[in-house]
Amino acid sequence: MSRTPVTVTVTGAAGQIGYALLFRIASGQLLGADTPVRLRLLEIPQAVKAAEGTAMELDDCAFPLLAGVDIFDDAAKAFEGANVALLVGARPRTKGMERGDLLEANGGIFKPQGEAINAGAADDIKVLVVGNPANTNALIAQQHAPDVPAVRFTAMTRLDHNRALAQLSKKAGVSVSEIRKLTIWGNHSATQYPDVFHAEIAGKNAAETVNDQAWLENDFIPTVAKRGAAIIEARGASSAASAASAAIDHVHTWVNGTADGDWTSMAVVSDGSYGVPEGLISSFPVTTRNGEWEIVQGLEIDDFSRARIDASVNELSEERDAVRKLGLI
Ligand code: NAD
Ligand code: LMR
């Protein structure tokens, strides 16, 4: 077992996702079975007591990898020495809202957290933003952390990626493990574009294997893009365990690398690839290695895909303009 614990800061620790996430981190599923973790939990003052209750339960699990839990209501302290930061704390949408409707309510959370990361996080800090609207909240945090490389700020589209894997595996009648190279492009919103044209099922092109354009357009894409709303409709609350699971997957893949011949979807700062304006935090196909990600290059984008990628990226540009107007960046 490696001796030095990795410090993981989790915001919104007393929330739904927090409750599903913390036990998996503490049991070693985030960073691996040989990596001890020290948790630093951030909550608003009213929710600190509930976070303390969760910490008591973490103690009661007697996880061998858990080196300690500290709870804060001050961002500056919570991010001190953080190697990994999971920015979950934010209001979820309720029925009838789009995630973008949360910009004003949640955007303000991410400026001070970006500043706190800039001031106190470890040099190797990796940030995953889960709180919605995740891409633009990540942009806000990143903009307020000028000393941290922008590539360390990411937002979560892994849940969308996993949803797409599940839908495609059902349609094709194969296990998800036979599917590779799926991509979520753009925003974690209803405009996102789940792309199967470069995906493979058991080594063969997925779109050709499925061979059902009507299903792709009228079923697959809207089902994946609107799944968050469907969960809210069914559960009366936004997805939590699946979101926590995707957050675990995102960081695990970032740290441990993508499999040869595969890639994943992460919202990362654009370098202009695929016509996505530089600086936007947009979802791309990415490979990871040695703790660093790289956008997969050279994919051919046909008109069908181009129009959908552009629509989602335009929405991200509009969100960026909106938070500029709000004075958040
Ligand atoms: P929740 O309301 O159950 O929990 C949110 C927690 O955040 C609360 O305990 C609240 O006290 C805390 N919080 C609020 N402001 C905070 C701050 N400034 N600092 C620290 N903590 C703060 O919500 P949830 O279901 O856990 O969802 C959290 C967020 O994740 C929501 O914005 C939701 O929309 C989003 N989400 C994103 C994805 C994704 O795929 N990116 C998936 C699911 C949910
Ligand atoms: C999801 O995709 O489930 C989350 O972003 C929650 C939501 O508001 O849809």
TrEMBL record:
Segments forming domain Lactate/malate dehydrogenase N-terminal: 7-146
Catalysed conversion reaction: (S)-malate + NAD(+) = oxaloacetate + NADH + H(+)
Active site: H188 (proton acceptor)
Domain Lactate/malate dehydrogenase C-terminal, chain residue ranges per copy: 157-322
Keywords: NAD, Oxidoreductase, Tricarboxylic acid cycle
Residue numbers binding NAD(+): G12, A13, A14, G15, Q16, I17, G18, N106, Q113, V130, G131, N132
Source superkingdom: Bacteria
Residues noted as binding substrate in the record, renumbered to the chain: R93, R99, N132, R163
UniProt-listed InterPro entries: L-lactate/malate_DH, Lactate/malate_DH_C, Lactate/malate_DH_N, Lactate_DH/Glyco_Ohase_4_C, Malate_DH_AS, Malate_DH_type2, NAD(P)-bd_dom_sf
EC number: 1.1.1.37
Pfam families associated with the record: Ldh_1_C, Ldh_1_N
Family: Belongs to the LDH/MDH superfamily. MDH type 2 family.
HAMAP family tied to this protein: Malate_dehydrog_2
Functional description taken from the UniProt entry: Catalyzes the reversible oxidation of malate to oxaloacetate.
Protein name: Malate dehydrogenase
Organism encoding this protein: Actinomadura vinacea
Phylogenetic classification of the source organism: Bacteria, Bacillati, Actinomycetota, Actinomycetes, Streptosporangiales
Gene label: mdh
